[in-house]
Amino acid sequence: MVHFGMQFLHESKTGRAMNFRQLKTLITIVDAGGFALAIGRLHLSQPAASRQIQALEAELGVPLFDRVGRRLRLTAEGEEVVHAVDVACCRRPTRCETAPTQ
After folding, report:
1. 40 pLDDT band (50/70/90 cuts)?
2. Which residues contact 81 (CB under 8 A, 6 or more apart)?
3. Separation of alpha carbons 44 and 52, rounded Å
4. Domains in the chain, CATH or no CATH each
């Protein structure tokens, strides 16, 4: 299993900076429960959203979703990436509330 820490946000497997549009697409798909609602929220076509996820998977070198027919489920690596984004962006209120302030 690959472990993603904060460094994945800065540098991918290919050495390029992560594309935050791709991360936003991933998070929106997860939050919406799938592509159908997410593409409306993102104002993207389904093929464009799919390409962004495929590009992110290629950058990270791991699949983020298990695809069974038309259903998607996050892989363990996908869950780690979503968690790392949550922590980095303080998307989880309890994380932000307990973070030390300076």
Report:
1. very high
2. 4, 8, 23, 26, 60, 64
3. 10
4. 6-98 (1.10.10.10)
Report how far residue 83's alpha carbon sits from residue 54's, in angstroms, rounded to the nearest whole number: 19
Q: Report whether 4 contacts 85 (CB < 8 A).
A: no
Helix (H, G, I), strand (E, B) or coil at 68: strand
CA 86 vs. chain centroid, Å, equals 9
The candidate with the shortest Cα–Cα distance to 29, out of 58, 54, 60, is: 54
Return the number of other C-beta atoms located less than 10 Å from residue 82's C-beta: 20
Predicted structure pTM score: 0.74
Q: Which long-range contacts (CB under 8 A, 24 or more apart) does 91-98 make?
A: 91/27
Cα separations in angstroms, 88 against 54, 67, 83, 85 = 22, 27, 9, 5
Instruction: For the chain, give the mean pLDDT.
Output: 81
